[in-house]
């Protein structure tokens, strides 16, 4: 009797896990989606005249009320005021205008002038009232400038991107992002964006930092050229210098008249000069601090006003 050959066994596929495997893949995909940067949200620029840039969320937060003073209260800086207003007006009209660096003494109204100039020009109907927006970017977020430019490019508004107290220290390379936006990038600065910055330093870097670079470099001139050239990319350099005694008193008197504070002229002059002497400085900020003091002593409220910076 001949036995028939056994048929070969079919290979058995290893278990695939079925629903467990597909569930794991979905969990991995969901985790990767959460880790991916979120696309920037659409911004309704009509809801406010000013915004603050938050790069971590690629978000522009609307500012309900801008902290600023009236343009008429900024005394002792008439020349730079007129230059910045004219530049801002040209930009609002769609004409060529320059990026501006406001540099110099502390407390003389650099950032106050930027905000006041924006308000003055934005209110004029011939420039399309409300079409000029102020965007504040913090110093530590300068590296995100290209992302902000991409968000503003093509929007039907004109934007002043404003960075207050801008400066750079040793080993800080974020200035390269600013240089690219100001002039050197392949796309360039968007036609509807201009940059205004304030700084206590004319060249945006500390003197000792420049001297250290020169001392350790093979070619001292080239060592600092890249960082110094950052200032050169601002077409307007507007200098703010310490005010004279007469200018300081004019600032104080302007605030007192504006807020209708009743005080004898001789007393005001004597107290204001004594206040400046104790502070060791005369500036718009010191003048405002004195006015706050005298208003408090006399029981006069200073409503909805902001200190100069």
Quick take:
The protein is an alpha/beta fold and 309 residues long. The chain has helices at residues 19-35, 78-92, 110-122, 145-152, 175-184, 207-216, 220-232, 245-258, 265-279, 284-298, and strands spanning 50-54, 59-62, 100-104, 132-136, 158-163, 193-199, 236-240. The chain has a seven-stranded mixed β-sheet with strand order 2-1-4-5-6-3-7.
Structural class determined from secondary elements: alpha/beta
Number of helices: 10
Strand content: 5-15%
> What portion of residues is helical?
40-55%
State the CATH architecture of the largest domain: 3-Layer(aba) Sandwich
Number of domains: 2
The neighbouring-strand order within the major sheet is: 2-1-4-5-6-3-7
Keyword list:
309 residues; alpha/beta; Rossmann fold; 2 domains; 7-stranded mixed sheet; 10 helices; 42% helix
Question: Care to describe what's here?
Answer:
- The chain is elongated and about 85 Å long.
- It has ten helices and seven strands.
- Helix 5 links the parallel strand 5 (158-163) and strand 6 (193-199).
- It has helices spanning 19-35, 78-92, 110-122, 145-152, 175-184, 207-216, 220-232, 245-258, 265-279, 284-298, and strands spanning 50-54, 59-62, 100-104, 132-136, 158-163, 193-199, 236-240.
- The model has no long low-confidence stretch (mean pLDDT 81).
- Helix 8 (245-258) crosses helix 10 (284-298).
- The chain has two domains: 45-240, P-loop containing nucleotide triphosphate hydrolases (Rossmann fold), CATH 3.40.50; 245-298.
- 42% of the residues lie in helices and 12% in strands.
- The protein is α/β, with parallel strands linked by helices and 309 residues long.
- The protein has a seven-stranded mixed beta sheet.
């Amino acid at each position: 009797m001949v036995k028939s050959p056994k048929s070969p066994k079919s290979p058995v596929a290893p278990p695939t896990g079925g629903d467990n495997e597909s569930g794991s893949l979905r969990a991995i995909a969901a985790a990767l989606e959460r880790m991916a940067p979120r696309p920037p949200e659409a911004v309704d620029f009509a809801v406010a005249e000013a915004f603050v840039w938050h790069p971590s969320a690629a978000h522009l937060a609307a500012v309900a009320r801008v902290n600023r003073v009236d343009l008429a209260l900024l005394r002792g800086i008439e020349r730079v005021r007129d230059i910045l207003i004219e530049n801002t007006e040209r930009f609002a009209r769609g004409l060529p205008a320059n990026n501006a660096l406001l540099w110099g003494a502390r407390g003389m109204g650099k950032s106050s002038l930027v905000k006041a100039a924006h308000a003055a020009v934005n209110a004029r109907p011939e420039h399309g009232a409300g079409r000029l927006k102020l965007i504040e970017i913090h110093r530590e977020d300068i590296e995100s400038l290209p992302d902000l430019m991409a968000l503003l490019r093509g929007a039907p508004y004109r934007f002043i991107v404003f960075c207050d107290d801008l400066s750079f220290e040793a080993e800080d390379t974020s200035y390269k992002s600013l240089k690219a936006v100001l002039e050197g990038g392949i796309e360039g600065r968007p036609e509807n964006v201009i940059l205004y910055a304030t700084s206590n330093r004319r060249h945006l870097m500390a003197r000792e930092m420049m001297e250290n670079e020169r001392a350790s470099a093979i070619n001292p001139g080239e060592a600092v050229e890249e960082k110094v050239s950052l200032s050169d990319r601002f077409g307007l350099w507007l200098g703010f210098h310490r005010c004279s005694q007469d200018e300081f008193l004019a600032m104080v008197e302007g605030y007192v008249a504006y807020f209708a504070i009743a005080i004898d002229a001789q007393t005001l002059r004597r107290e204001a000069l004594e206040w400046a002497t104790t502070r060791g400085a005369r500036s718009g900020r010191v003048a405002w601090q004195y006015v706050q003091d005298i208003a408090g002593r006399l029981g006069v409220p200073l409503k909805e006003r902001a200190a100069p910076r």
